[in-house]
Structure formats: structure tokens, C-alpha cells
Amino acid sequence: MSYKVEEVNGCTKKIVFNFETLDLTTEIKAELTKKQKTVNIKGFRKGKAPLAMVEKLYGPQLEFDALNQFVQNQLIAALTKEELNPVGQPSFEDMKYDAGKSVSFNAVVEVFPTVEIKDLSKLSFKKEKVEIKDEDVESIKNNYLGSKAEMVEITDDSVTLDKGHTAVLNFQGTTADGEKPESMKGDEFLLEIGSGQFIPGFEEGMTGMKKGEKKSIDLTFPEEYHAEELKGAKVVFDVELLEIKEKKLPEFNDELAKEFGFESVEDFNTKNRENLVMQKEKAADEKLHQEILETLIKENSFDVPGALVAQQKDYLKEDVKKNLSQQGFNEPMMEEYFQKWADDLNEKAQFQVRSGLILDTLAKKFEVETSDSDLDAKIEETAKGSGLPVEQLKQYYSSDENIRKNMMYAIREEKTFEALKSQVKVEVA
Question: Is the pTM of this model over 0.70?
């Protein structure tokens, strides 16, 4: 055996190769002969140039190619024999080559670590109890009725502006240097209090005002505001409250329920209560699963491949970029964002990689398997919660193999958590 394996850490191996006698003459000559048949050299027909001339022109490159192929073949053979599953590309170091005599080199390879999970029976967790109140269903009903609502003016002059009201106002902002930009001006502007439409403090500053009242509100733009010139800028908004309006909802009856796709008011209440239970159960499970993963990561230490973390960071950055671009961020702004939150991004990537390795280990331990019937059940569940047709969802998940694989992976994780929760103590409280 012309190599030995050294352990750098739990997921990194160094394979030290040493061939004290190595003659690549045969391999180089074979490469020269192949090159001779295809090369074009001035003064000779294609493939008819003398071998000596081909060697003179291409010898060093072909020798390098032969050596590189030899190195790759030896690495693959060693990985196969040692049953090492590499992550990412290996790195080579300390290459020493004496033409026609010897070669030695090291290959540093990251591999999937062996994850050993400690006794699960000693772990205990609490899951939030799911409770649905009448006001929860009432809130959903009001959201539906919002599209049918009529905006009416409050004529009682003693009423003060509060959350949920819509203010009709004039406003003008003045910067610290006395400028009054048109972008900070509005006439008969409609603003729903509590919507968060304006910068923090504006709506709160208006709360409590009465119709006809004027007021100056001192504010500071957020440091992360999208307009560079306004980041952290101080401004005074002079506002005048012209009217206070409120939404007047229609009476909810069977006729309206049918317009919204339900058979009756009773059907509306029943189905939305069921959906609320499903949503809150899912939220409670997600919170529990997060706590379980945090505990398992804390209790079970192991090295993770840097290549996996780097790959996960790239995935996270792509997702964040999509969201930032929708908010109007350009490339320089995104670069600044990623510099500011680099540590958080790295920490999140580390957590996700460790979580994935732990769940994969547990899935194998519990012999978790997924099938087409699991996917069908998930589609039925999704259709019930979203209101989308089952056939439409089936078509979506069959339209792209990656979409289907991602869903099957998520189902595998869910089934792993179910098996895992049977091994630990979970109290509902």
C-alpha cells in the first residue's frame, strides 16, 4: 500500500501518498501517440508529424497530464478502498515529483462525519397546548368581511384616533437643515393606524389626536432605511388630522358565506376552526422541533465539513437576495447587508448543517422510509389547509423532480421527528 490515512478531525482526512518508484514513461508515450494523431503542425499533414517533434512541442504538458491522471486515479482508488464518502473537492499539498523516479503528495479530503447521538430517553420538552377561542374565528371572519367593508367617517368630535382607525391627514416633513422635500409631503392622505406604513413613531405620534387637531412629531429615520441620505436622519413632521374614519362591516350571513366559498355560516365557522387547529398545531410542532434540535446539537458534539457549511451559506444568501431585491436593495446595499450579518449567516448555516446531519442519522436509526403514499397524504393535507385543488398540487409536485425531492425530504424529516418524539419526554402545557 503506497498511502496512509491520517485523521485531521472528525470530518477531515489526510491521505499521504508516497510512490518511491514511479515511471510514467508508458503513460506519457501513450498520450504522445494519441496527440500525434490529432495535432496540426505546420509543414505536415494532420496526424503525420514525427513523434519526436510532437514530444518536443507537447511533451511537458502531456507529462503533466499523465501525472495528474495518475494522482486522480490513486485518490479514487484509496477513497474506494477506505470507504470514504468525500464532501466537496479534495485539496492537494506537498506535491514532489522526480520525473521517471518517484512522486509523493497529500490529499486533504472532507468526509461526512460519524454522528453519535446520546441517550434520548433522558431528554424532556414542553409543547404548547393548542387552544382555539371564539375571537380567533371572529378575527378570520372580519378579515373576509374586510373586502365588503364600507369606510365611514366618525362624526363624534370627542373620538380620538386609535389603532384600526383610518386617518385622513395633511403632513409635511422638515429635515434638520430646514429642507421640506416633496417626498415627505401628503394632502388628504389616508393612513390606517397600526399598519406600519410610515416610519416607526409616526403612527404612534398621531394616536390620541382629535379631528381638526394639528401636531408636530419629532422622528428619526431608521439606520437601515433604504434611502441612503435618510439613514438615521432627524425630521419633524407637521400633521393635521382632517377626519377619522372606521370600517363598517356588513352583517355576516349564509349568503355572504356562500360568496366566500362556504355552504353556510356554520360551515364557515367549522372549517376555519379546523384550519386554525391545524395551523396552531403546526406552529407548536415547529417550535418544539426547533427546541429539540437545539438540545441535540448542544448535547452531541461533532465536526462538520466546511464545504457543507459553505454550500448552505450560498443557499441562504440566494434566498435573502431574492427578498432584499423585492425590497429595492441594489448590489452595493446587499453587499453591505451581508457584511453586517456575516456572523449570523454563518451561525445559521452551521445550525442547519448540524441539524441535517443529526436528522439523517436518526432517520437511519429509526429506519424511516418515504413513499408515494406519503406524498399523496401530504398533498391532501396541504390542499385542505390552503384551499387549493388536489389535482393542481399533484401537478405542481410532478412538474419538477427537484420540487418533488425537496417535499419527500421534508416528509422524511417529519416522520423522523415523529419517531424521535416517541423516544423523548414531551409534555403538553
Answer: yes
